[in-house]
């Protein structure tokens, strides 16, 4: 029994660490995109390394937590839900890492007129992830507060969509090659993807929250 | 021979373990918060403790309901109850052992023409309604308290899980203890008047009385039932009526344990009485009913839609049919046992109105000149005896009942040998012992005759007025008086 109680304490801190990693990942992602747009290649490369490390740390933590939950049959009622939350949050992290890597691989040529759009879009997507982390922490500790955070996730996701839309309209109005336009749109979609994934998690979270409160 | 007769009690204990342990730990195991092995170990251990330590209170009530006075009769009563419980369990209906045994005792009363004590029966039947209601109320109160607390203190989901596990273990242990204390009377109660065991000293540490040994055996039988057969019931009981979450499971178990405890604890009764509060009667209530009450309580808190009322109806109809089935089975199997196997299922009772009785009846306010017409006639059937009194006197129903009880012939002899061997100095006060010695070698035809003689000799044998502050003293004295009656009663009378 005593071992079991030690495990739950440990798991609580591991879940916290996992969420910390995702939160930090979001900050690194935002700075990474900014660095790329500002042409600061040195810092950009460092951010890529950082996000890769954080992503693999989050992956490891997620696996350990899931293993522990199942081997010790902890929270039998909610472990499926917790698993769902952890895995979908991990996907948010993956999307951020992938996007930053794509900047590095494809080196998109961003016209100066559009950089502010990209920065704003990134800021919105990252805000969605930030608020999501609050919501997840609340799910574990104060379930009645989850709703307060979730509606903000929706808000930031819609904002990201709106800005992405404007960005694409601007890009397609420009006098550049069609392939270039496609490339710009492609990166807008990548960044938007981050807030979309965050929204997926928040959708799950709202259902799980209802389940926990009735 | 003894073991053969006791076997039906052991069988009943086993079915109770299989069936009722599921009530205590079913939801914890079904929600996978506890492993079956852990649950069974805790349950078995605490059931035995509860049975031996505080099983006596409820046995007295059952003893009053109908005093099954022959071993073969007790065997059949327990057997009929066990068969009913086992059969209903197979049908998947969470049946009440308490109801089965009460039904079976009434079956014995009917078959042997013994009187049923309607006061006790009324008390018992009322608790069948009261206990699920009380469990529902307790569960609702606990659940609202839990919800408010969990909202106030921000606590991690995993910590909640940890506390729930500790809670389920503690509540389960408490529930098992209460189950043992409250329901052992169902299993072994009918054997109490015919117990063949004498006092037993365990390595000089504890002394187990005959009844306690009987309860220990019953407790072990329940524990074996838990180990061997309760797993399946536990796993199905969880989700049948309402799917319970682990926190709701904890509350239901707690509510059930509290209800069983208040109907079993002598200490609580004394405490309530000493504070001038009304006490709960000590009656074997059904753990199944308490659990169902608790589940319904939680269901109502969550909005009644969650409850499967069809299942509830099925279960509640079982509450009506169980005592009736047990009663019918007992009645017919007693007939079989007596006529085919030639076993004595009850002792013959003789009722006679003698000179002493006539003068005593004036004291207890049941005198009627018509009684004198019946003087020195023996009756072997209580119903015929009562009819005769009714015809010749103007006594009312309650008085007739009293006369019938008082006119029963039981032979007592204050045997000098028994006085030296069975009466220890720490059992009685000097005054009491002195009074008893004065009647050495005398015989008595009725229990009240012996008790009267003792009371006249010394006030230390007299009960105090029936007031709440005297309840403890009177109970103690009543126990001693009963002990004396048991020791000096002549066999076959």
What secondary-structure arrangement, pairings included, does this model have?
The complex is a heterodimer of chains A (214) and B (493).
Chain A: H1 2-38, H2 41-71, H3 79-106, H4 112-141, H5 146-173, H6 178-213
Chain B: H1 2-30, H2 36-54, H3 56-65, H4 71-90, H5 97-112, H6 118-152, H7 157-188, E1 200-202, E2 206-208, H8 210-240, H9 246-262, H10 266-274, H11 287-301, H12 309-339, E3 351-352, H13 355-363, H14 369-373, E4 378-379, H15 382-392, H16 397-406, E5 412-413, H17 416-421, H18 430-438, E6 443-444, H19 447-457, H20 471-488
Antiparallel strand pairs in B: 1-2, 3-4, 5-6
Structure commentary:
The complex is a heterodimer of chains A (214) and B (493). By secondary structure, chain A is mainly alpha-helical. Chain A contains six helices and no strands. The radius of gyration of chain A is 19 Å and the shape is elongated. The model of chain A has no long low-confidence stretch (mean pLDDT 92). Chain A has helices at residues 2-38, 41-71, 79-106, 112-141, 146-173, 178-213. The longest helix of chain A has 37 residues, at 2-38. Chain A has a single domain, classed as Methane Monooxygenase Hydroxylase, Chain G, domain 1 (Up-down Bundle). The model of chain B has no long low-confidence stretch (mean pLDDT 79). In chain B, the strands form three sheets. In chain B, strands 1-2 form a two-stranded antiparallel ribbon. Chain B has a two-stranded antiparallel ribbon with strand order 3-4. In chain B, helix 2 crosses helix 7 (157-188) and helix 3 (56-65) runs antiparallel to helix 6. In chain B, a hairpin with a 3-residue loop joins strand 1 (200-202) and strand 2. Chain B is mostly helical. The longest helix of chain B is centred in the first third of the chain and has 35 residues, at 118-152. Chain B folds into three domains: 2-339, no CATH class; 351-406; 412-488, no CATH class. At the A-B interface, helix 1 and helix 4 of A face helix 7 of B.
């Amino acid at each position: 029994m005593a071992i079991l109680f030690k495990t739950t304490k440990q798991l609580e801190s591991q879940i916290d660490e996992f969420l910390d990693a995702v939160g930090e990942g979001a900050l690194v992602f935002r700075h990474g995109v900014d660095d790329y747009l500002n042409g600061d290649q040195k810092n950009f490369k460092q951010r890529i390394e950082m996000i890769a490390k954080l992503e693999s740390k989050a992956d490891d933590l997620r696996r350990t937590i899931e293993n522990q939950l199942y081997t010790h049959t902890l929270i039998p009622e909610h472990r499926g839900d917790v698993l769902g939350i952890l895995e979908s949050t991990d996907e948010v992290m993956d999307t951020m890492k992938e996007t930053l890597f794509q900047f590095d691989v494809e080196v998109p040529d961003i016209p100066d007129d559009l950089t502010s759009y990209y920065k704003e879009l990134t800021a919105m997507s990252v805000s969605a992830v930030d608020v999501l982390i609050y919501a997840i922490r609340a799910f574990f500790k104060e379930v009645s507060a989850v709703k307060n955070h979730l509606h903000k996730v929706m808000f930031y996701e819609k904002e990201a969509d709106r800005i992405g839309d404007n960005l694409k309209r601007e890009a397609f109005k420009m006098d550049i090659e069609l392939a270039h336009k496609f490339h710009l749109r492609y990166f807008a979609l990548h960044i938007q993807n981050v807030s979309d994934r965050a929204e997926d998690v928040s959708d799950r979270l709202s259902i799980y929250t209802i389940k926990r409160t009735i | 021979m003894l073991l053969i007769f006791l076997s039906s009690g052991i069988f009943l204990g086993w079915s109770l373990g299989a069936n009722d342990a599921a009530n205590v730990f079913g939801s914890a195991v079904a929600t996978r918060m506890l492993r079956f092995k852990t649950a069974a170990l805790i349950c078995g251990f605490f059931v035995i403790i509860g049975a031996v330590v505080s099983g006596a209170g409820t046995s007295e009530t059952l003893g009053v309901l109908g005093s099954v006075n022959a071993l073969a009769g007790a065997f059949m009563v327990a057997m009929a109850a066990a068969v009913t419980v086992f059969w209903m369990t197979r049908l998947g209906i969470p049946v009440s052992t308490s109801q089965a045994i009460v039904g079976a005792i009434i079956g014995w009363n009917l078959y042997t023409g013994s009187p049923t004590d309607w006061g006790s029966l009324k008390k018992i039947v009322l608790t069948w309604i009261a206990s699920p209601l009380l469990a529902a109320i307790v569960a609702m109160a606990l659940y609202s308290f839990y919800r408010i607390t969990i909202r106030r203190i921000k606590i991690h989901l995993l910590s909640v899980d940890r506390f729930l596990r500790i809670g389920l273990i503690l509540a389960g242990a408490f529930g098992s203890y209460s189950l043992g204390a409250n329901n052992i009377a169902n299993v072994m109660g009918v054997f109490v008047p015919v117990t063949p065991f004498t006092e037993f000293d365990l390595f000089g540490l504890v002394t187990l009385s005959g009844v306690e040994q009987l309860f220990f055996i019953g407790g072990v039988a329940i524990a074996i039932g838990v180990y061997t057969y309760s797993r399946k019931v536990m796993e199905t009981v969880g989700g049948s009526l309402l799917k319970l979450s682990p926190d709701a499971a904890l509350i239901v178990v707690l509510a059930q344990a509290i209800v069983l405890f208040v109907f079993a604890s002598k200490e609580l009764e004394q405490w309530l009485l000493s504070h001038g509060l009304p006490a709960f009667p000590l009656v074997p209530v059904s753990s199944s009913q308490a659990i169902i009450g608790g589940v319904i309580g939680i269901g109502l808190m969550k909005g009644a839609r969650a409850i499967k009322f069809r299942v509830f109806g099925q279960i509640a109809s079982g509450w009506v049919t169980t005592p009736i089935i047990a009663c019918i089975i007992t009645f017919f199997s007693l007939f079989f046992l007596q006529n085919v196997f030639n076993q004595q299922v009850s002792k013959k009772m003789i009722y006679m109105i003698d000179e002493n009785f006539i003068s005593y009846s004036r004291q207890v306010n049941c005198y009627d000149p018509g009684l004198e017409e019946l003087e020195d006639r023996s009756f072997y059937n209580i119903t015929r005896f009562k009819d005769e009194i009714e015809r010749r006197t103007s006594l009312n129903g309650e008085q007739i009942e009293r006369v019938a009880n008082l006119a029963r012939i039981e032979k007592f002899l204050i045997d000098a040998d028994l006085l030296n061997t069975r009466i220890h100095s720490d059992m009685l006060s000097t005054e009491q012992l002195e009074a008893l010695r004065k009647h050495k070698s005398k015989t008595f035809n009725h229990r009240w005759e012996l008790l009267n003689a003792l009371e006249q000799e010394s006030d230390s044998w007299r009960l105090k007025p029936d007031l709440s502050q005297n309840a403890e003293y009177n109970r103690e004295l009543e126990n001693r008086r009963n002990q004396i009656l048991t020791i000096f009663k002549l066999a076959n009378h």
